[in-house]
Amino acid sequence: MSVLQRVVKPTTRKGKKVLLKKEPQVIEGPKRALFFHGRKSSETCRNLLKDFYDLKKPDAVSLNRKNDITIFENAKEVENFCKKHDTSLFLMGSHSKKRPDNLVIGRMFDYSLLDMIELNVESYEGLNSFRGPKFTLGTKPCLLFNGPLWEESQDLKQLKSIFIDFFHREYVEHIRLQGLEHTICFTATPDGKIIFRSYKMILKKSGLRTPRVELEEIGPRADFSLRRTKLPDEDLMKEACRKPKELQVTKKKNISTDELGTTHGRIHIGKQDIHSIQTRKMKGLKEPSSKRRIKKIMVKKALAVNNDINQNKNQ
How many domains, the chain? Predict the structure, then answer.
């Protein structure tokens, strides 16, 4: 038995713009994130969600009510939340006797669950614990991943991809040095910890053209450890990473680019007779008159010899 889905048709101009905005775009903007609480939530999870919400603003939606959700057993309600608020990322905080101070971070594809990872908050210090200036709203952070485990472990490799999507904003081609104000550092240690640190970049005089960079920790500060994971299917991940035809670079024949970015082209031409090519007439290339006289005399002698040979043959 098939269930027919209701097709929503806009009745106003504003409704049509909203539906067009929700459709897939050729160039997507910053991904929005949904922050919500589970059945129970501890003070650590509430403060951490609030600080992460401040890091993600203005591309974030926060829900204050508690929700009776067991996301690893049934993710349908979370998918409905993300579809309702038009978000492709989510961060859920929960607390129980079996899993205290629990975070679940995940992604959606076409409003269906793509992947998610459960983290244990081992230690946490909020933004209010650090004095000094904070980051500017909407600043594009610089993400640093320390340690070889980010590429060796499949779970950490997927978590790295989620963190990049979570804190990534709009794509830029050029970066101004003064625009680098905020740095987020993730460190994977051999004992299984994931260390999260946030720094403010301060540019100071160095006596050279490039300034001296200092990092000042501004918070939040947290230590995580992995719990449960739900990795995506290979086919679904391939479909989620597929680029639209408009953005695919078509390879042009006989054109190549080297490592320095220089474009080289190859031209194919047919075989040419260099003796019949018309070149520019210059005095420097012109033969002297003496050589031309000698050539004329030689040609006349050759013609006379040929005539004599032909006459002798005829006789």
Answer: 1
